[in-house]
C-alpha cells in the first residue's frame, strides 16, 4: 500500500461526495420547506486497521491515519425565513414541530406548508397531492371543497363557523436523525417516539429553504480546491513513481 496515494484518493472521493451534497443544496435554495443536507466527514481508518493487520505494517505510517471518510448524511432542521404569499391555504410553522403527512400506511414529517384540496377532498401537499395532511390522531383530513377554509394559529380548521379538524403537529426527540425521503419529506427513524408539538401557525406564509446560497457557494469553492489539491497530489506521486521505476532503477 502506497500511503500517499491512499490518502489522496480518499480526499478526492470524499470531496467529490461533499461537492455533490452542496450542489444539491444550492439547487434547492428556492424550494419551500427544504432542509439542507450536511456532509459529515470523519477520520478514516487505515487499511491495516480495517483488516486487523496492524502488526503487519509500519507503525509510523499507521499514525498518519487513513485520510477522510464520509459519514451518514445528516439533515439541518433549523427553520428558514418566512415569505408572505397571501394564500390562506399556505402555512408556516413558528417554533418546533413538523406537519404530519401520509400516503397509504407511510407517515412522513415536513415543514412544507403549501396545501391544496386534492381530487378526493383531502387536505394535501400541493407538490404531491398523494401526501395527505394528518390530524392530531394521525387520520387524513377531509374537507368540504364548497366552503371557505380557515386555519387558526393553533392548527384548528373551521368551515362555516364549525370546527372540522385539527392539523397534527409532531416532533421527535432527535430531529438530526430524520432522513430525506424525496422532495421535502422526512422519514421517521425506526423506533423513534413522536410527541405532539404546538407551533404557532401563520397562514398566508411559507417557510423558505434554510439554505444560504452565499455560504454554500463559499463551501463549494473550498471543496473544489481541496479536491483539486488531492488530484494534483495523485499526479505528482504518479510521476515520482514513474521516475523511480524507469530512471532511478536503471543500471548505468
Walk me through this protein's architecture:
By secondary structure, the chain is an alpha+beta fold. It contains four helices and 20 strands. It has two domains: 3-76 and 211-248, no CATH class; 82-207, no CATH class. The strands form six sheets. Strands 7, 8, 9, 10, 11, 15, 16, 17 and 18 form a nine-stranded antiparallel beta sheet that branches. A hairpin with a 2-residue loop joins strand 10 (123-125) and strand 11 (128-133). Helix 1 runs antiparallel to helix 4. The longest helix is centred in the last third of the chain and has 36 residues, at 213-248. The mean pLDDT is 88.
What's the arrangement of secondary structure elements?
Elements (H helix, E strand, L loop, with lengths): L2 H25 L9 E2 L2 E3 L3 H5 L7 H4 L5 E3 L3 E2 L6 E3 L6 E4 L3 E6 L2 E5 L4 E3 L5 E3 L2 E6 L16 E2 L4 E4 L2 E5 L2 E4 L6 E2 L5 E2 L6 E3 L3 E4 L1 E3 L5 H36 L4
Antiparallel strand pairs: 1-4, 2-3, 5-20, 6-19, 7-8, 7-11, 7-15, 8-17, 9-10, 10-11, 12-13, 13-14, 15-18, 16-17
Helix pairs in contact: 1-4
Quick take:
The protein is of the alpha+beta class. The protein is built from four helices and 20 strands. The longest helix is centred in the C-terminal third of the chain and has 36 residues, at about 215-250.
Features:
252 residues; alpha+beta; three-stranded antiparallel β-sheet; 4 helices; elongated
Largest sheet: 9 strands, antiparallel
Count, helices: 4
Rg over alpha carbons = 26 Å
Q: In the residues, how many domains can be counted? A: 2
Shape: elongated
Low-confidence stretches: none
* Terminal residue distance: 29 Å
Q: Count the strands?
A: 20
Helix content: 25-40%
Order of helical and strand elements: HEEHHEEEEEEEEEEEEEEEEEEH
Which structural class is indicated by helix and strand composition?
alpha+beta
Strand proportion:
25-35%
Report the average pLDDT across residues: 88
Amino acid at each position: 500500500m502506497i500511503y500517499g496515494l491512499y490518502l489522496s484518493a480518499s480526499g478526492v472521493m470524499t470531496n467529490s461526495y461533499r461537492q455533490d451534497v452542496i450542489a444539491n443544496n444550492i439547487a434547492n435554495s428556492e424550494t419551500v420547506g427544504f432542509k439542507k443536507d450536511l456532509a459529515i466527514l470523519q477520520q478514516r481508518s487505515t487499511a491495516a486497521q480495517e483488516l486487523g493487520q496492524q502488526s503487519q505494517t509500519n507503525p509510523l505510517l499507521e499514525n498518519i491515519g487513513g485520510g477522510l471518510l464520509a459519514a451518514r448524511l445528516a439533515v439541518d432542521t433549523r427553520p428558514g425565513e418566512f415569505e408572505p404569499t397571501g394564500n390562506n391555504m399556505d402555512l408556516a410553522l413558528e417554533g418546533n414541530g413538523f406537519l404530519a403527512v401520509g400516503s397509504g400506511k407511510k407517515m412522513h414529517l415536513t415543514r412544507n406548508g403549501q396545501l391544496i384540496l386534492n381530487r378526493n377532498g383531502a387536505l394535501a401537499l400541493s407538490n404531491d397531492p398523494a401526501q395527505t395532511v394528518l390530524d392530531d390522531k394521525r387520520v387524513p383530513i377531509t374537507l368540504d371543497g364548497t366552503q371557505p377554509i380557515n386555519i387558526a394559529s393553533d392548527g384548528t380548521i373551521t368551515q362555516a363557523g364549525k370546527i372540522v379538524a385539527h392539523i397534527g403537529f409532531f416532533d421527535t426527540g432527535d430531529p438530526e436523525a430524520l432522513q430525506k425521503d424525496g422532495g421535502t419529506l422526512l422519514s421517521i427513524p425506526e423506533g423513534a417516539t413522536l410527541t405532539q408539538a404546538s407551533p404557532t401557525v401563520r397562514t398566508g406564509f411559507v417557510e423558505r429553504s434554510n439554505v444560504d446560497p452565499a455560504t454554500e457557494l463559499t463551501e463549494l469553492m473550498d471543496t473544489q480546491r481541496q479536491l483539486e489539491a488531492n488530484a494534483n497530489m495523485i499526479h505528482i506521486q504518479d510521476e515520482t513513481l514513474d521516475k523511480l521505476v524507469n530512471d532511478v532503477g536503471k543500471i548505468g
